[in-house]
Design a protein that fits this description.
Order of helices and strands: HEHEEHEHHEHEEHEEEHEEHEHH
Largest sheet: 7 strands, parallel
Shape: globular
CATH architecture of the largest domain: 3-Layer(aba) Sandwich
Structural class: alpha/beta
Strand order of the largest sheet: 3-2-1-4-5-6-11
Number of domains: 2
CATH superfamily of the largest domain: NAD(P)-binding Rossmann-like Domain
CATH class of the largest domain: Alpha Beta
Bound molecules: NADP nicotinamide-adenine-dinucleotide phosphate, guanosine-5'-diphosphate
CATH topology of the largest domain: Rossmann fold
Number of strands: 13
Radius of gyration: 21 Å
């Protein structure tokens, strides 16, 4: 349903425009769907790749030649400030969501410089481009920065907006920098900028090298005879896992407030990787201990042991609460990946090559 303000804009032929970096990622895909339902015209920044990287949004992508198209894609990269400026000027958005990132913690230890360039300096490039754009055109543009609970690192739980950051990885350090750039631009240039500090959120669209998806993919593949073992690292780490579809609503709500602010978004429940294994394997009527082996390659040089978010502020100020429970999330992911593995098995039986893409790096 469109709100009355959105309807009025629509009736005047002035759809609200959103620009999203990281539109091909897990959150980007849910956010596009959410904003299209709200009546927005949505513009996404995609990276040029030698293979297609738009899987997650293919189902909603419309050929730009069709009538009433409301989703547009633009080539760009957070490492290319000039390109970002050009996209801003041509799109003229009302809201900008900076979701683009090298978002994998373990990979950030292998590629710290690249991670800093995309995550920290990339955010700075986008903020700089936006600062110039708003001062030239005199419009108020609202900006969302995708912050992470990883920024809390070793700070004891529960973590909320007042908890001091103690990042434990190059990824987390870069996110802290992006967070403070955003605060600084808000304070220095009176820009409407919100930091969302989102705790881990998952879905059937989660990247396959993050632990939850790595587990549910393995469950499906083991069940269908495509994989024998699942190699993991630290099973004791605890995370506050929510559903990505719920979390994109919180991003949007932040930008609809009268004043910009920073918010923790979390479920308020934390579980260990071991507990995730127990629950997810049990759904498939399997004993995880028969299949899981520990491989030290998945240990991190410094670990984040215990994340548990206190999202009271988001609940009170935004009226946001998560809708999908932990159990529903696990079930959703297991069922999805069971079906995916069934399709893979069918393909394999028909003679197609089925590979474990990227799993070794996760
Ligand atoms: P994701 O699935 O890894 O998606 C990352 C997106 O960023 C992809 O679209 C990726 O493009 C794009 N990207 C990577 N490098 C880029 C570059 N140099 N320039 C422009 N775009 C680039 O991540 P996600 O789970 O959707 O998370 C969205 C954001 O929230 C990220 O900033 C992440 O760090 C942050 N976050 C996530 C969580 C979580 O639990 N999911 C929690 C807290 C914060 P390709 O598709 O081409 O790779
Ligand atoms: P993160 O919280 O952003 O680092 O999300 P991940 O899903 O990558 O990792 C969550 C936790 O699972 C971390 O404490 C990891 O150390 C732990 N973990 C254990 N085994 C694995 C593994 O094989 N892959 C990943 N990605 N994480 C693992």
């Amino acid at each position: 349903m469109l709100s009355s303000a959105e309807k009025t804009q629509g009736e005047r032929g002035l759809l609200k425009k959103a620009l999203i970096s990281g539109v091909t990622g897990q959150d980007g895909s849910y956010l596009v769907e959410f904003l299209l339902k709200k009546g927005y015209q949505v513009h996404g920044i995609i990276r040029r790749a030698s293979t297609f990287n738009t899987d997650r949004i293919d189902a909603i992508y419309q050929d730009p030649h069709e009538a009433d198209v409301r989703l547009f894609l633009h080539y760009g990269d957070l490492s290319d400030g000039t390109g970002l400026r050009r996209i801003l000027e041509s799109v003229q958005p009302d809201e900008v969501y900076n979701l683009g990132a090298q978002s994998h913690v373990k990979v950030s230890f292998e590629q710290p410089e690249y991670t800093a360039d995309v995550v920290a300096t990339g955010a700075l490039r986008l903020l700089e481009a936006l600062r110039d754009y708003v001062s030239l055109c005199g419009r108020k543009v609202r900006y969302y920065q995708a912050g992470s609970s990883e920024m809390y690192g070793s700070a004891p739980p529960p973590q909320n907006e007042a908890t001091p950051f103690h990042p434990r990885s190059p990824y987390a350090v870069a996110k802290v920098a992006a967070h403070w750039y955003s605060v600084n631009y808000r304070e220095s240039h009176a820009m409407f900028i919100c930091n969302g500090i989102l705790f881990n959120h998952e879905s059937p669209r989660r990247g396959e090298t993050f632990v939850t998806r790595k587990i549910t993919r393995a469950i499906g593949r083991i069940k269908h005879g495509l994989q024998e073992k699942l190699y993991l690292g630290n099973l004791d780490a605890k995370r506050d896992w929510g559903f990505a579809g719920d979390y994109v609503e919180a991003m949007w709500l932040m930008l609809q407030q009268d004043e910009p602010d920073d918010y923790v978004v979390a479920t308020g429940e934390s579980r260990s990787v071991r507990e995730f294994l127990e629950e997810s394997f049990a759904l498939a009527e399997m004993d995880w201990q028969q299949y899981v082996e520990i491989d030290p390659r998945y240990f991190r040089p410094a670990e984040v042991d215990y994340l548990l978010g206190d999202a009271s502020k988001a609940r009170e100020a935004l009226g946001w609460t998560p809708k999908v429970s932990f159990w529903e999330l696990v079930r959703m992911m297991v069922e999805h990946d069971m079906e995916l593995a069934r399709q893979e098995r069918t393909l394999k039986q028909a003679g197609h090559r089925v590979t474990l893409r990227g799993i070794a790096n996760g």
